[in-house]
Amino acid sequence: MELLLHAHVLVSSNSDVLKDVESSNAQYATHLLNGNSELVIQSILNQLNQRIDLSNVSNADEMVSLTRSFLMEYFKENTTLSLYFAIALLQCFIQNNYTGPFIDVDIFRLLYSTQQEEISIYQKYLIQSLTILGQPAYELLSNPECLVLALLLLEILTDSQTLFNDQNNTDDLILPEIVPGCDGLLAIANWWRARALLAHLSVIPEPTGNQPSVAAAIMSTIDIAHSIVNALPVEVGEDFKKKIYTIYYLENIKTSLAINTEHLCLPSLTKVKKLTNFEFVLTGARAKRTKFQETGHSGLIILAHSSTQDESIDDSDPNNPENFTLESDLLLEKPIFDSIGSEPLDEQIIKRQKIDPESEENNGIDEDRILPMAIRQEYIPKSLQDLNPNEQPTLSNLDVIQLLLRVYVIRQTSPARDPLVEEELSAIVSRIIYQKGQANWTLFSRSLWERSILETNKAKTVERGLLQMQSLVEELGLMIQTRMIPQSQDEVNNCSAPRLKYIYQLPFMPRWELDARLAEKYMSLGVLRSAVEIYDRLHMWCEAALCYAAVGDEKQAEEILTKRLTDAPDDARAYSILGDIRQDPSLWEKSWSIGKYVNAKNSLARYYYRPPKESGVAQDFDVVLGHLNDSLRQYPLSFDTWYFYGCVALECGKLNVASEAFSRCVSLDDTHSMAWSNLSASYIQQDKLKEAYSCLKRAVGFDSQKNWRIWENFMIVSFRLNEWNDVLTACKQLVSIKRDKQGEGSVDMPVVEKLAELLISTDYSEDKQDYFQRNSIEFICVTLPSLITTNDRLWKIVAKVELWRKRPWASLDCHEKAYRVTLHNPAVDTEEIAWNNTIDACEDLVAAYESLGEREGKYGAGSVVCKDWKYKARSTIKALISKGKGRWDGTDGWERLMEIRSQL
């Protein structure tokens, strides 16, 4: 029963089981689900009747140690009670820093015994204890004691290695291992620990340290969900079990996003979509966006339908988010779509990649994309074709979360400010905002926030986007002097439960981060003063300095950082940023010595890789690799650092190091074509051609930018391994990439000659052709002739293939073109080599006339290839004699030409 209660709390699912059980634990679970976490804390501490005495504490380490001892003494033995206490602490921290409304309970005084005037000092110690590798936690966060105690208690409950002050023990980190069949409560405790670690990461500027690795280890295996489901009572329904798996996959995606391994999200996105039977597709429709439009313009829309629905929401509930209609004369609040497919099919918009319409497997839709797309109306699934695009049904909250997570994955894996990507994201967000019925507060406000981010990138909507961002920041109760939407005292309701319900499935966005994003937008629009004012109010001194540095006012940036280091001499990040501005290695070394701040080592590596000319420092690859190695030992999940590490190792010939580095790169992002290509380069230099070939196969599969170097390497390695189908594919792709700039120079002559040799060595059949024959013929006989301008060798290759195809008339035509190419070379009049080449081409053409002229022609029996071939041969020779007479008389080439004439 205890496991069932905890499972309901884990997935935020109210149930009659909570009403049927009369126990303090059931009461705790009810409080947590109702958003009253402070009642759980008060009840447990009142029963305990103990507080932590801080009279002898003088620094952060002592405070953490004392707190840990207290928790070990009073909470270690009672796992269930301890878990409720840890969850309540974490919930209070989340509510006060992420969702609101603020809890009016002094939790610090409930936990610790100290003088009122000393509380700020001890809270500062708690915030200092949350520092990770030199990155301090946000200094104005509320109730740091809740997060610290939750992290410590969950470490104790899971019997895990502590991550506090972990910069000294990164080499011997023991990652948690979730094994199949482990205790259900232990699995739940580990799950809550992963949530707490992600909350910890969200209060520092960048993910770093061991926390990302531990969180990833916990949430990377489905066994954690299996262990909970298998331990549930047999009478528990399948729907509840399915919800546990759904929540797991959603949080698996969130974890990948939080630790910058977003390229690992797609498998989980696909699985959770199938698990909830969620149907949605991106397609096109015409829409009117202003009152003055008489006809709609093409745009993108998401058609979506949920297979399950949440419990009905009371529209009169004052805790529901409010909908405001702008009713602008210029911009409609909601676009009005025409019926999908009302326009002619051949005019329907086609975006992005082409999908084979003949594919029966996906019916024109690639389900394994982040955003499944129907490029034509007939490809839309039947279940979605009847939806009214202007009144789509309400989606379940879990399906809304799926869409929001796809927004984050697309944004983190796509180029910034790409117009098409932003249109896709707008379509997703609009589907959530404009659906019928009321929505969960957290999901609706997050959707509004994402829409505001997108709107601030457009000139026509930037003002509305900024106003919406401002109002959302105000909604969380930040200390802002003015509000654009007035709020009365009676307006503040106890709406913590719906705000907390889905907070763990979405990327954490603390309230100060929202305000900082608003400052970034002001900065991007050139409103420097407003941006700096926000940073000053938030005490984000490093961001304020970066703001000034971005506009070239480095002196002001240095003043801010210098003052910050005077007040906080242990801020390793501030030292590193100051080092970046001054390009001073001593400041980076100082940053590393203080807190092992990994960006300081990365900056040192870049400095010694390309030293400034005025520094007098020489490039030193060994020093660069040493700094990068130090950085990666502290934070091994950084793709960019591994990539730089591999490139440097490749450049200085340390091939084993390069192979290891790029192997780590592709394990973090297996869609990165350049990482696969560089890994293959390291294998090629080690003469490991099969390994290189496998890597290049992956590289070309993900090469969306069509990098000719990757394809050229693929062609060369395939050539050496006699993989002729791949050689042909690579050769064709190279021509496609380079033809516009290089023309016939895009053709690799030796490779094409080999392909032609292989082709004509096989038996020709008009009806039965394998892949190699069919594609080689298309490439040599169709693509190459459209490229050739001056290369007679290419025409001769085409001639051989045409003769093999039993098309002697086409072969003779190629020989004629080869001769004309050499004849029209301007160098024929001045260079003997060019003259001799023309003689060779003439001889080949005469031989072709002689051997092909009397063969059966293009029109079958009774026709010949060239009826007057002798006349043409004589005319060719005569014209060449006239051209060379007076210039090349008496040369070897002239004598050979005379001999050709006499033999004819």
From TrEMBL:
Entries under InterPro entries matching the protein: TPR-like_helical_dom_sf, TPR_rpt, TTC27/Emw1
Keyword Phosphoprotein: no
Record keywords: Repeat, TPR repeat
Protein species of origin: Maudiozyma saulgeensis
SMART domains per UniProt: TPR
Coiled coil: none
TPR repeat residues: 673-706
Keyword ATP-binding in record: no
A Pfam family this chain is assigned to: TPR_8
Protein name per its UniProtKB record: Similar to Saccharomyces cerevisiae YNL313C EMW1 Essential conserved protein with a role in maintaining cell wall integrity
